[in-house]
Specification:
The chain is α/β, with parallel strands linked by helices. 23% of the residues lie in helices and 28% in strands. It contains 10 helices and 26 strands. A 5-stranded parallel beta sheet has the order 3-2-1-7-19. A hairpin with a 4-residue loop joins strand 20 and strand 21. The longest helix is centred in the C-terminal third of the chain and has 15 residues.
Length: 422
């Protein structure tokens, strides 16, 4: 590595910001440029649907690091910079404002964008004045400005973000409805037992949960001074109609892979990277929500939308760029805060054949362990942080456990883990 070799990091989310800092700490000697499309310092995104949305976290508190930290690390911040093309032959990126920037190594941390709600009365690219998505600070600000006592908020999608948003909106006194196309909320990410628990919690808080609700069409009315007619109701395939003042769609995320595709990189549902976060071009690494990577634990390619995964991949990319040993990988983990409940999850529960509950569901402090053929593949812990830490060891080791003891509160979970993992 020579002093004038430039590392360009495209994307200033969790992955990009961490990669830039980690590369400098690992010994990258040349210039590092962190390029982001938003006119903001890199910030935490998870609080957007929780503490920031309902006013418990100030805007400044969301910053991952202050400007001084990037300056001290010799990292140039190029904000409001949208990269529109990559020339791999000359190692150059092209920006929307006409500039070009050369690189010795390139890091793609482009993240993803919300999947658009498209149905009768709502075409792709259409922008009703009261339809929002939640991905950025600007999105959160727009949603918060429309929340007040009595606002009829309709959330399309009963995943983590949708339920977190619903919980936050109740603090404003909004009348909240959640529309979920599947038979239960959180169906793609957790077991039926935990879904049932969260459905009961939300209904007790006054949230209307409508499952098996596939949006067939929207009804719209032109509002004064609005460029696009507002949504006033959503109608399901079965004819159910839900009135709305404000609509937020949380129906998944699309990885931002267009740059990688146009540059001819290997893309398969995400930018394909190896264990060191290297793409099919050895001069380009990638990290975060835009990537897919083979999981040794689950023996398949995964695209994980999580902050911990973004940070781990970023550190692996930095190690690769600087010729260092790769850091150890943990089992994938996630979290969600709703009301007074902290849900901590480790592993992927899809394909489990057994669910073991530990603790009393009624106490709102319990854990659900998911097993396949006797092996613990995932766990959800609600207000049980100690159980979560032990569950991470079980899942990471693909441990086989005594199912009866696992569900027995009188049996020490710590001893059970020690016996299974060593």
């Amino acid at each position: 590595m020579v002093q004038d070799e430039t590392l360009l990091v495209v994307g200033a989310g969790h992955a990009g910001a961490e990669l830039a800092i980690a590369a400098r700490q690992a010994g990258w000697a040349g210039p590092i440029v962190l390029m982001g499309e938003e006119p903001e310092l890199p910030y935490h995104r998870p609080p957007l649907s929780k503490a920031y949305l309902h006013g418990e976290a100030a805007r400044e508190a969301l910053q991952l690091r202050g400007a001084a930290a990037y300056a001290a690390a010799g990292i140039e911040l190029d904000a409001a910079a949208r990269v529109v093309g990559i020339d791999r032959e000359v190692r150059e990126v092209r920006l929307a404002d006409g500039r070009t920037r050369r690189y010795a190594r390139l890091a793609l941390c482009t993240g993803g964008r919300p999947r658009p709600l498209v149905t009768e009365g709502l075409a792709a690219g259409d922008a009703p004045s009261n339809l929002h998505y939640l991905r950025t600070l600007a999105d959160a600000d727009a949603i918060r400005s429309g929340l007040r006592e009595g606002t009829r908020l309709v959330v399309v999608g009963g995943g983590y973000v949708g339920l977190e948003l619903a919980a936050s909106a109740t603090k404003f006194g909004a009348r909240v409805s959640v529309l979920e196309a599947q038979p239960r909320v959180l169906s793609r990410v957790t077991g039926a037992e935990v879904s049932a628990f969260y459905e009961e919690v939300h209904r007790a808080a006054g949230v209307e949960l409508l499952t098996d609700f596939s949006v067939a069409r929207v009804e719209r009315v032109q509002q004064p001074d609005a460029a696009h007619a507002a949504i006033v109701a959503l109608v399901g395939q079965d004819g159910r109609r839900v009135d709305a003042d404000l609509v937020v769609a949380g129906i998944g995320m699309l990885p931002n892979v267009e740059l990688a595709v146009a540059a001819g990189l290997d893309v398969d549902g995400g930018v394909v990277v190896d264990a060191g976060a290297v793409t099919s071009d050895p001069c380009i690494v990638a990290a975060g929500d835009c990537t897919v990577q083979h999981s040794l634990l689950y023996d398949r390619r995964l695209r994980l939308e999580s902050v911990p995964n973004a940070l781990e991949q970023a550190r692996a990319a930095a190690a690769t760029l600087c010729g260092k040993a790769l850091p150890a990988r943990a089992a994938p983990w996630f979290w969600s805060d709703q009301y007074d409940l902290k849900l901590q999850m480790v592993g992927l529960s899809q394909g489990h054949d057994t669910c073991v509950l530990r603790g009393d569901v009624a106490s709102r402090k319990f854990a659900a362990f998911y097993l396949r053929e006797g092996i613990v593949i995932a766990a959800d812990a609600i207000n049980r942080p100690a159980d979560f830490m032990l569950a991470k060891r079980l899942v990471g080791a693909a441990a086989r456990v005594d199912v009866i003891a696992l569900g027995d509160e009188s049996a020490s979970l710590k001893d059970l883990v020690a016996a299974a993992v060593g």
